[in-house]
Amino acid sequence: AREFCFEILLKEYDLPAADVASVMLTKGDTYRDMNNFQAAAIEYKSLKDNKRYKTTRHGIMAQYRLIDLLIETGEFDAAEGQLMSITEVGSRDAQAEAYYLLGKIAFEQEDYVQSRDYLRETFKRVDGHAEGRLLEGELKLKLPRGLATTEVLLGRLDLQTVVVPGRELTLKLRDTNLSIAQGGQSIPVQVSTSVGGDRELVRLVVSPDDKTLFQGSIATMLATPKHGNMRLDIHGGDQVSYIIDPAYQKANDISYPAKILEVKSNARLVASSGEFLTPEEEEQRRMEREMRSREGGSESVRMRQQRGTVVRPGSSIYVQLTDFDRDMGEQKDTVTVDARTSSGDLVSGFTLTETEIHSGVFEGELATGIPFPLVTASDLEEGADPNAIINSTKKGSWVSLPDGVKPKWVDVDSMSSHDVKSIIIKTPDVSRIKSMRIVGVLDANPINLGQYRIDGQETPLGGVAQLINKQYVGQEMVELREALGKGGKLSEASSMIHRRADTDHKGRDGWVNTSLSGTFWLDEDSRMTFKFMQPASPNGWQSAWLFIDGRMVLGHRGMSQAQLAATKAVTLSAGAHTMEVIMVDHWQDSSVIVGLGQDDGTFMPMPASLFSVTENTALADALRSRGKVAKTPDGFSVTLTEPERIRSLRFIFDDFTGDGLSVSAISMTASDGKAILPTTHDFSTGLEND
């Protein structure tokens, strides 16, 4: 929090005075919470004395924070002297704060009766003084009969605006001079609903420890109204009105208008791959799991985590909304919700139906299907549809931006796994392509399907690739990954280490995006611990994330030294694993170093040998091309040595002449000779739901 304050205060005079004062006060509070009272006092005093900020709300609060520090450090006499003068000449709010702090001093000195008396003075001036009410709650544990009422009266009594179905409605009235009660012990209040027409009488009775506070309560429920049953039956569309009984007001010559409450309830929306269970069924399942556990059986961590959260294409998604204020009348009501996938498909206005009249619970079943293939690309001309290259019913091509940025790439996600035997890519720019790669993906790990170089040489395997560009998009990981996907300067790194001093951007500040990526090999199952080893950049400039097999292991936006000290242990199986670092920094001396934990608890930079194919023949085999790429008059063909089970393809054009490229068609054939691509439907056409 303190570092965020520092970052905000760098633009102090670009912000409104009230906002800056709030941040300065928070900065002082962080020092106080760290028990650095001297630094906190300096912050509070500078805020209190600053001409720009001292008249703001938080500037005024700084004075009381300084007095509170005196209390924290046991300097009670000095604090009392300042507070007593405020009680004599201060404003109403200032006096309330002063009496609260005097009450706090008395509490610290274990003079609980005096503390209670000071708090009464506070509440005479500000009835809903939050800190005072909390201190009052602590006092209840100390005073005789303090627990006769355990409620802490936070907030103003006249600000209640909402009634929640199923919750008890509590009404409170402060009658400071007893002009309403007229010496009686209760006040009758009529409560009614606007739609259902229910009417009930509630008597507010005097609080046992506060003779000026009258309170009463009544149960509420979604139900058909029944007058006089001492329960307020309400509908979601109701307004609840309460008023001191008109006959009582007339008899005592008083006039208080009605107050209105809205029926509101926080909604809870849940989706599951399995049907929803009744509470009885849930309890039965819980007991069955406990019995299995006692008998030595267990449920895997994976299954516990995924229970109800994974849906297979073609299966239904069960949706449940609990929202009491959407129960509108004497019938089963309906509500509509929208469902959207992360890939962009949308179902609008999906109807949920109330399970029972007045249940306030709405359910529905949403059908799913296997999505159609999708094409994405590093970039494309405005208005172009890249899906045309896999849809035989569409005309068009993928055409990149003519910006000269390398590499360019095209992704084809078939949305299902297939045993693939051959691939064909057609492009009118075949003669301009100098090198390209075809990568397949089934899970997180890429499979090298084939490579092409115009000089006929093999692309070196292994090692760590470093990609750098200066397309600043902020410090969010998703935007950084997208920016790096558009290309930049590609080079080799010695390991998972990047230093700006070793790049073209050395010696100067400026935002630079960087990625490091490579594949490493483990001979056996291993428990590995990782951390970042670089120093923190100033001003929280650096944001960095570490991924293993596509899953984030470490990282944060605006890395502090404390966040850089974080470690993460990961269990990895024997075999090949991908590692990737995504980073952005502004500092001229920025660096990224991925550290690997040692047996003695220390960390060393990730060894370059783990990424080397010369030192790991098994890694070389894992990274070898699975097929042969042949140049054709209108493109390239890829023939795999053995069928490979893959879901998606990425065509990476590392080098080419000219400023851009285009692809006119991509086809993919299965091991049984059937065509996987092209199809007659693609993801964009599948967005039109029936």
Question: Describe it for me?
Answer:
It is a single chain. The model is unreliable at 152-157 and 300-307 (pLDDT under 50). This protein starts with a helix and ends with a helix. It is an alpha+beta fold and 690 residues long. The protein is 23% helix and 34% strand. Strands 1, 2, 3, 4, 5, 6, 7 and 8 form an 8-stranded mixed β-sheet that branches. Strands 14, 16, 17, 18, 30, 31, 33 and 34 form an 8-stranded antiparallel β-sheet that branches. It has a 6-stranded antiparallel β-sheet with strand order 20-19-22-27-24-25. The chain has 15 helices and 34 strands. The relative contact order is 0.09.
Give the secondary structure arrangement, pairings included.
Elements: H1 2-9, H2 17-33, H3 37-49, H4 57-72, H5 76-89, H6 92-108, H7 112-125, H8 130-140, E1 162-163, E2 169-174, E3 186-193, E4 199-207, E5 210-222, E6 231-234, E7 239-244, H9 246-251, E8 259-263, E9 268-272, H10 279-294, H11 301-306, E10 317-322, E11 334-340, E12 346-354, E13 361-366, E14 374-377, E15 398-399, E16 408-426, E17 433-441, E18 446-453, E19 464-469, H12 477-485, E20 489-493, E21 497-499, E22 512-522, E23 526-532, E24 543-548, E25 551-556, H13 561-564, E26 568-572, E27 575-585, E28 591-597, E29 603-605, H14 617-623, E30 627-632, E31 635-656, E32 662-663, E33 665-670, E34 675-677, H15 683-686
Parallel strand pairs: 1-8, 5-6
Antiparallel strand pairs: 2-5, 3-4, 3-7, 4-5, 7-8, 9-10, 10-13, 11-12, 12-13, 14-16, 15-32, 16-31, 16-33, 17-18, 17-31, 19-20, 19-22, 21-28, 22-27, 23-26, 23-28, 24-25, 24-27, 28-29, 30-31, 33-34
Helix pairs in contact: 1-2, 2-3, 2-4, 3-4, 4-5, 4-6, 5-6, 6-7, 6-8, 7-8
